[in-house]
Known about the structure:
- 41% of the residues lie in helices and 21% in strands.
- The two termini are 30 Å apart.
- It has helices spanning 14-32, 51-58, 76-87, 111-126, 178-188, 207-223, 235-243, 250-268, 288-295, 311-321, 324-327, 347-357, 359-367, and strands at 2-6, 37-40, 43-46, 63-68, 70-73, 96-104, 129-130, 137-144, 147-151, 155-156, 168-172, 192-199, 227-233, 274-275, 302-303, 371-375.
- The strands form three sheets. A six-stranded mixed β-sheet has the order 15-14-11-12-13-16, sandwiched between helices.
- It is of the alpha/beta class.
- The chain folds into two domains: 2-156, 2-Layer Sandwich (VC0802-like), CATH 3.30.2130.30; 168-375, 3-Layer(aba) Sandwich (Rossmann fold), CATH 3.40.50.
- The protein is elongated and about 85 Å long.
Amino acid sequence: MIIVRYGEIGLKSPQTRRVMEQRLVENIKTVVGGKPIRRERGRIYIESGSREDAERVARVFGVVSTSVAVKTTSDAETLISDAVIQAKKVIDEKTKFAVRARRKGSHPYKSMEIAGMIGAEIKDATGATVDLTNPDVTIHVEIRDKAAYIFHEIIAGVGGMPLGTQGRVVALVSGGIDSPVAAWMMMKRGVEVVALFMDCRPLVDDRTIDRAMDAVQVLSKWTNKPVKTIVAPYGEALMEFLKYGDHKLGCVLCKRLMLRVAEKVAESEDALGVVTGDSLGQVASQTLQNMNTIETGVDLPVFRPLIGMDKTEIISLARIVGSYETSVQPANCCLGPPLHPETGATVSKVKQAEDVLDMDRLVKETLENLKTLEVSYVEG
């Protein structure tokens, strides 16, 4: 038996909670297949004794923790006997242990009383030492009405909200360190992500798209299903920017075009916004003034989950996500910013440049040649 716990969902209104619980169950089914699953007052139970299943379920967005447990009854004599049997599998005379009990429902004993009785029997059966402050092993007993569950391990979950409960966004994914993390953070809050890769070939080589697709594969490992990915041919538009006289505006113009393409893709995908990996002040295009100017080019919300994080924090998250090793692979994804990039671009100056470049045409030409993929994680 696997016990699945969730957090925020339990704070929602009854109607919202039911919807989110059902979505969470559906998402868990993609991990454990046809194994029976049931919901019961703040818990989800899976008919599986596999620790591998418990670890995989812990990676489902919305899950706070999981445990592989043995189910028994709340009858004190039976519960104590079964707890001793389970404890002897992980405790010997050299082990310091504790027993923690929690109850829901009406029982002829209190939580601390049953914990004490179980602890005494385990001590007699194993010769182990009770240590409630710093135990080597903790035997957990969760009693719910007539049933009880015994376990010794709690596997931390990813938390968040069930994927698919908060709508859909288009995430600009370059394959670098930041953008996959930004997409993952939105996914963790229950948002379905459509990945958009701006393909700069022929100005760059195939390593750029390979790295980006590898990053999307990592994201699909968290969704347990393919991630819809749209590739937008961007090389021709980028060459137009490189020819433009005021090179200082190159980064801002580039980002504005990306957002405009992303907005059009979002409209076709019924998405409610665009996600970027921007972090305030990290590069020239990510000053507050430049981000404001860039964002005025679109009407949809632009979400920046990393806005207040520094690079060290983002890298730490990338390691958790599993995208870091992919993101640091060599790839010439950018031809390099201008020698002296504009850090305070104004809307009026940028619009003048866009008129010269005929930005509407560049957006239209990019959208005419989109390629749609379904990207899945492949082991090895």
